[in-house]
Amino acid sequence: MKRTFIGSAVFAVVLxxxxxxxxxxxxxxxxxxxTSTTAASTSGGVKVGIIDIxxxxxxxxxxxxxxxxxxxxxxxxxxxxxxLNTEVENLKKQLNxxxxxxxxxxxxxxxxxxxxxxxxxxxQAEDAQNEFQQQQNEIAQRxxxxxxxxxxxxxxxxxxxxxxxSSNPWPQGPLLWATQSVDLTKNxxxxxxxxxxxxxPAGAKPAGSAGSAPARTTPSTxxxxxxxxxxxxxxxx
Length: 237
Description:
- It is a single chain.
- Strands 1-2 form a two-stranded parallel ribbon.
- It is mostly helical.
- It has a domain at about 1-35 and about 55-145.
- The protein contains six helices and two strands, in the order H-H-E-H-H-H-E-H.
- The chain has helices at about 10-30, 30-45, 55-60, 60-100, 105-155, 185-195; strands at about 50, 160-165.
- Mean pLDDT is about 75; it is low at about 5-45 and about 210-235.
- The longest helix has about 55 residues, at about 105-155.
């Protein structure tokens, strides 16, 4: 999954958390201020933590299950695109190796066939990419909406004054540097899993060890698309 996959869904979860925080402050009144003062005096300042939101989403049992299901759903279309891509490449090879031996009509027909199939491939790949991205974002947004109160509860229960998203490294993201000891990604994943009740998919790996930053590998949520070579044009007539 690309690091941009959560996109506008982040704004939804930020708004949700802001609403929760405001509600909590109104309900607690002076108690909320007292909690903040206690946290500051205990740590010598505002207690700060980081969460890799993208890894948290994928790391939940629900996320692992749903993204894996999405991959399987698009597997037939990926295979179709790969087959069409192979067909186009074979026609290109035929044109390169036999084009100078063909008569003009045969060569023109082959070139037109390549161009037609290549346009079809490009169009189908773009359609699949857009559809995959849309469904991927829907999964992410759904999980983020349910993760917002989990994060809010965890932050309040542990007297955190500030949480930052570490999904995108600086300068794309707001986080310049942080020690691994302040990474809360696994804590949030564990809290979410406990609340959701969704069992871990078979063979799923844990979302990192406690107190350590999650792996920075890109999750396997790439949309089906043809090989880059499909964008090349057949030799000019």
